[in-house]
Write a structure and sequence with these properties.
elongated; 2 helices; about 90 residues
């Protein structure tokens, strides 16, 4: 696969992950604002939403590292596909 196609596909995946991450945060906010069976249950639910979000951040960053490695180690930063709140390192 040529470098441009590889980069475009990896960035497309990162953009899709970003969208899923935004959806996870939206659902988490709705859970936070509504009653769950018990406070203990709610804490567990919210913690797992954040863990899911963190795993998505990691997946996006790992795809960025694939692009970086393919570019010979050159650091990249694509705001359109970076998770909200992520660092500026790819």
């Amino acid at each position: 696969m040529d470098k441009e196609t590889f980069t475009a596909q990896a960035n497309s995946l990162r953009t899709a992950i970003k969208g899923i991450g935004e959806q996870v945060l939206e659902v988490k906010a709705r859970v936070f604002n509504h009653d769950v069976a018990t406070d203990e249950d709610r804490g567990e639910v919210l913690a797992n939403f954040m863990l899911a979000y963190r795993h998505l951040e990691d997946a996006s960053m790992r795809l960025g590292k694939c692009i970086q490695a393919r570019d010979g180690g050159v650091s990249i930063y694509d705001k359109a596909s970076t998770m909200p709140g992520a660092s500026t390192e790819a």
